[in-house]
Amino acid sequence: QAVVDFERLGEHAAAFQGHDVGFCCLGTTRAKAGADGFVRVDRDYVAQAAELARAGGCKHFVLQSSRGANAQSRFLYLRVKGEVENLVQAVGFDHCTILRPAVLLCKRQESRPMEWIAQQFLGAVARLFPTAHSVPVETVARAMVACALQPGEGKVKVLENGAVHELGKA
Question: Can 81 be counted among the known catalytic residues?
Fold first, then answer.
């Protein structure tokens, strides 16, 4: 494990050398980082990490994005996620897998009251409709590993929430 300074990511190029697969789950919130900080972390850092990984020999990049990602969205969150998807695809990996999970169900150390309320509600909905509006982070992690072990055909694969659930249970 290598600890890097994302503000000086280029200085850590050696940490990105010699890996066949790259996994990226990097992200923050607008509330935590502000609009500019959110864009810097969720788009710029991710795109730069992808470029360094490719330059270091990475063949397959697995990116956790978001349901509804769209570079033309009027909503900052979805627009940035769509932009970073496009940037990562443009890097030119042999395989690029993009996962678009819905609301992530997880326990956080930091307090996010509204997210906690949403998770409680969506957790209850998930009992009736398991793949509709949420996904446990463990399921996303298993799906990401499965993508790396069996990249499949094609240069780019986009997995929506239902497919993330299926792959994460396999």
Answer: yes
